[in-house]
Specification:
Helix content: 25-40%
CATH topology of the largest domain: Archaeosine Trna-guanine Transglycosylase, Chain: A, domain 4
CATH superfamily of the largest domain: LON domain-like
Radius of gyration: 20 Å
Number of domains: 2
Largest sheet: 5 strands, mixed, barrel
Number of strands: 7
Length: 236
């Protein structure tokens, strides 16, 4: 039987993979409310790639597949407590089953970086009761982790594809092989015992756009994952 839960959702212009670290700077009042609620609870929220075609009360909605982020550290970076720096760690993947909309519509001419924009949202927080949230929530179903092993020859094939892609993209500039190995070393991707986390990291290193990584996150088997990473790293 699948496991479901209700969690806050934070749509971002990035893809978070399981076990990856993600630092975030929180400055919007609605996401300050989200973090406050998480710190009172289990410290978990969902990170999803933004889906600009999916508007929820005028706000940018999330893609349907995301990753639960666990807050591991939270610090005030302003005296007023309205700007936070949090450290998070990716945990399980999930699929959104039902969206729970925020309590307010997207304000007209809203600018999240402006004082006026902050005031509009802060005013709504003061008017709301504890059950009304200004951020998106969702009922989600947890997705089992891919537990298949990746063979060393599969990993070496993906690394070769990555090297070929970087070399072709740099043309006419020539990149020496040792330079590519230095990059892999810098990102701790030199290994004889690869795991799925290495595949995720290599994918992130080879992607130009977060949307390129969403199909990687959505893969449900090692075979499907390898195929999608091959497509990502193949220069057409």
């Amino acid at each position: 039987m699948s496991q479901t839960k209700i969690i806050p959702i934070f749509p971002l212009e990035l893809v978070l993979f399981p076990r990856q670290e993600l630092p975030l700077w929180i400055f919007e009042p609605r996401y300050k409310q989200l973090v406050d609620d998480c710190m009172i609870g289990d410290g978990q929220f969902g990170v999803c790639l933004v889906d600009v075609s999916n508007k929820i009360k005028g706000w940018n909605g999330p893609k349907s597949i995301g990753t639960i982020a666990k807050i591991t550290k939270c610090e005030d970076i302003e005296i007023d407590g309205m700007q936070l720096q949090i450290q998070t760690l990716g945990r399980s993947k999930f699929k959104i089953k039902k969206i729970i909309p925020p309590s307010i519509e997207f304000p007209e001419n809203y600018d999240p970086h402006s004082i006026d924009g902050h005031q509009v949202i802060s005013d709504n927080i003061q008017k709301s009761n504890n059950n009304e949230k200004l951020y998106i929530k969702a009922e989600v179903e947890l997705i089992p982790e891919i537990d298949d092993d990746i063979l060393l020859k599969q990993w070496e094939h993906l690394v070769d594809l990555w090297k070929e892609k970087i070399t072709k993209q740099a043309f006419p500039q020539k990149i020496e092989p040792f330079t590519l190995d230095q990059i892999l070393t810098q990102y701790y991707l030199i290994t004889d015992t690869p795991t799925i986390d290495y595949v995720y990291s290599l994918s992130a290193l080879g992607a130009k756009d977060p949307n390129d990584l969403q199909p990687i996150l959505e893969a449900n088997s090692m075979e499907e994952l390898i195929k999608r990473v091959e497509e990502l790293l193949t220069v057409k």
